[in-house]
C-alpha cells in the first residue's frame, strides 16, 4: 500500500514510463490506462477522418503502448485487435509505411502475448499479403506469417492450426485456379513451400495444395507448383544439413583450439576445413535413419489423374501463354511422375517426338524427359518411334561427337528402363559406334553393349556378347512385355548356409532340437515390432489372377513349364516378405538352387539381426564388389541426371594462346604465391635487407671470396662450420 | 649495377600501357589535375531580388505551413499573424477559405506548447465573436459548424492527452465550441457519447466500472481532477456542456410565432415530418463513410444516436448518470468553490433528467 501511495504522487508524462508502471501494477493504473485508451480511440478517429497525409508518429507511439499493456486490461481492450485488423485491411494501400509496419508488428505482438489466436492473425495478414502493392509490406507479412506458423509448431505439431491454414491456402489456390490473371495462389505456394522446406508441414494435405496450384491456369502459379515438386525435397535435405550445425560444436571446438595454437598456414586451414566437413557428414549420417520423410511426389493422391491433367492442360493443347521453360518444367514433372508411379500417359510420347531434334533448344532436357517417362510397363510400340527418331537424328555420320553421345546415352537410358523398345538391327547398328574416335561416343556405345549383355545378349552381334554373357545365354529366357522379375535378397543364400552350419553345430554340441522360434525372438530383441513367429500354413498367397490369364492367352507357343515357373515367381515379392507361395503346387526340380534360397525368404520373417548378419557375411565374401557391377539395375524411380545424357565434357581443341588465356583468367583475382614475410615487407617501407643486398651484390665482387673459400685450410673450414652450427642453435 | 636495373625498370614503367578493364573506372593519367576544391562559404555573385512584396494570400498560405514548424515561437507568431490579417479584412470576402484555415487550426489543440494553445484560443474566440451586435463575426458560425466534428475529434484527443497541461486546456476549446455552435457541438455519437466518455476519464469518474474495488475514489492517481484550478474550469465547462446537451431553450414563443405555427402546423407532430433543419442528421448511420469503421450502434450504448435531447438524456440516464452523480457528490463534500459548482451541476442533472422522466410518463 505504501508503494502505491508513493507512485500515486508521480505524474505521468510519457508513455514508456507509464507502460513500465502499468506492467508492475495494472489495477492501480487503470485510470491512466483508460485515459490513454480513449486517447488512442480519438487518434484513431482523427486518422480515419483523413487517412492520407496524417502525421502518424504520435499514433504509432500510442499503438505500441496499448499493445504492450493490452493483456493487463483484457476487458477494456476487447475491440483493440479487431480495430487494428480493420485498419490494416481497409487502408493498407494508403497507410504510411511506418504506420503500416507498426500495425503488423502490433498484431504479431498481440499474437505472441496470446491476446489473439493464430488463426485470427493469419486471417488478417493473408488477405493483405495477396492484395497489397507494396513489396516491403509483402516481405514483412510473409515473414510474420511463416514465423507465426513455425512458432505454433515449435514444440508439437499444431494440427488444428495447420489444418485451418492449409484449408485457407487451398481455397485461395482453388479460387484463382481458372483465371489466368489471379496471382494470389503464388503466395499460397510460397508459404507452403517454405513450411515444407522447414519440415513443418509434411503431409498429404500440403501436397494437395501444391497439386491444385500446378493445375492452375496462371503460368506463374503453375510453375511455382511444379517447381515445388521438382526441387523441394532436395531443398529440405539441404535445410536439414545446415540446421544440425550446433550439434558438433564440441568436437569443432577442439579443432579450433588446435588451429589457434599451431602455426597458421593455408595447408592447415584446408586440413581443418576438410576435417569439419568430414565431421559434419558423420554427424549427418548418424541422424539420417531417424528422420522419416516422404517425398512430395510419394504423398500424391491419384498420381495418374494428376499426370493426365497436367499433360492435357499445359502440354497437349498448344498453350501459347506458357514459355518454353515453363513447358519444360511441366514436362519434367509429368515424366517424373510417370517413371515414379509407373503411370500410362500415352500422349506424352508423341508429344516428345516433336522436340527430339539436335537443333531443338534445351534438347538434353527433352531427352531426359523421354528417359524418365519410360518404365517397364510402357508398351514398346510407343517407345520404338522415339528411339528410331533419336537414332536417326542424333546418331549418324554427319553429326558432331557431342550430339551422338547425347543420343546414344539417352537411348541407353530408355532401354535400361524398357529393353524391349529396341530391335536387333538398330542395336547392332548403334553398337558399331564403339570404335568411334570420340571418347564420349565410344563410351556411350560401350555402355549400350554392356546393358544388352545383361538384359538380352542374343540381340547383340556375336562378337559383342562377351564370354560370360554367351555362357549365360542358354539359361536366360527371352524378354517379354509385362514380365516382373522375381525379386531376390542378395546374400540370402549365405544366410541359409550359415543357418545350416549353426544347426550342425548345435546337433554336434548337445543334440537338442534347436528351436528356431527362440532364435527369432532373440533376433527381434531391441526392436519395437511385435515378433510374430511365422507359420506358413496360416498365410494365404495372394496372386494376381489377371496377369496369369493374360499370359496364358498370349503365350501358347512357349513351353508350358517355363510359364508355370514364371507365374509362380510373380507371386513371390521381396518387398512383402510375408507372402508365401502356395504350397500345394510342387516346385519344379529344374532349378533347385534358385528356388531353395528363396525358400528361406518365404518361410520366415527376416529379423533385423538376420539382415545385419547378411550384410556382415556379404562383406566377408567380398560380394559387394561384384554387385557394384550391377549398376544397370532399373531405377525408374529416380530422376535422370542431365549430365548422364550429355556424357563427359571434353574441351575442344585450342591453340596455345587460348589455353594460356584460360590459365591467366583463372589466376585473376588470386593472390600471388609468395612468403608471408615477403608480403609484409612489400607493404611497409623499409631499407634493403641483408638478403636483398646479398642477392644483388655484384658478381665480380664476390669472386675473390669464392676463390679464398677454396684455399681455406681444413681447420679454418672446421671453425667456420662450427660457428655456423652454433649460430643456428642460438637462433638467428 | 643493381640500382641501374631498377632504374631501367622504372623507366620502362612509364611506357607501360594501362590495362583497361570492363566495369572498372579508368585509371587517372599521370598528368591529371584535380579541379575539385573545398571552401567554407560560397558567395553567389548575383541574386535575384523580387521587388514586389508577396500578396496577402501567399503570406497567409506561408503562415499556414508554418503552423507545423518545430519551434513553438514560430507557430505562435504565425497564429498571431493570421489573427491580425483576418481581423483587419472584411468578413464577406476573406483572404483565405475557411475550409482550408479551420482544418489547419484544429490540430493545434494538441500542441505541446502552452503559449501556442493560448494564442489559438484567443484567435478562435476573437474571430468568432462579433465586435458589436450589428456586425457579423469574422468567421461565420456556419463555417465553424461545418468543421465542428473535426474540432471535436481534436478536443477528445486533447481531453485524453497524456500531458496534464494539454488536458487542462482542452475544456477551454470545448467551451468555445459550445459558445459558438451551441447544440451542434453535442449532437451525434461523436458529440455526446464520445465526449461524455472523455469527460469520465478526464475527471477520473470512470471507476464505477472497475469492479473489484481496488481503487477508492478518494485516491487519485497521476492527475485526473487533482489540479484545483483545472478541475474548477472543468466543472464549469461540464455544466455548460450538460445544460446545452440536455436542457431545451424554453424561450417563450412570440405571438407571431404562435400564429405562424398554427398556420403551418396542421398536426401535432408536424415537426417530425418536416425537412430537418440541421445538416447531416443521419450521420450516426455513417451512410457516406468512406471505408470508415462501421460501429454497431446500440440504443443502450453510450455511442448511440444522440440527435435530439431525448436520446441524449436517455444515454446519460442509461450509462453515465451513476458515475457522474458519484463524482459530483465527492466534489460536493470538498466544499468551497468546487463544492458549490458541483451542487449546481447536480441541480442541472436533476432538472434535465426529471424532465425526461416526466416526458416518458
CATH structural class of the largest domain in chain A: Mainly Alpha
Oligomer: heterodimer
Largest interface: A-B, 36 and 36 residues
At CATH level 2, the architecture of the largest domain in chain A is: Alpha Horseshoe
Radius of gyration of chain A over alpha carbons? 38 Å
Beta percentage of chain A is: under 5%
DSSP helix fraction of chain A: 55-70%
Protein name (chain A): Protein SDA1
InterPro entries (chain A): ARM-type_fold (IPR016024), Sda1 (IPR027312), SDA1_C (IPR048292), SDA1_MD (IPR007949), SDA1_N (IPR012977)
Subcellular location (chain A): Nucleus, Nucleolus
Keywords (chain A): Nucleus, Protein transport, Ribosome biogenesis, Transport
In short:
The complex is a heterodimer of chains A (732) and B (361). Chain A is mainly alpha-helical and 732 residues long. Chain A has helices at residues 2-9, 15-24, 30-49, 57-69, 80-91, 97-112, 118-131, 135-152, 159-175, 184-197, 204-214, 219-243, 249-261, 266-288, 303-316, 324-341, 347-355, 363-372, 380-394, 401-417, 424-431, 439-455, 462-465, 467-473, 492-509, 516-523, 545-554, 560-571, 592-603, 608-621, 623-628, 642-646, 656-667, 676-683, 690-696, 699-711, 714-730.
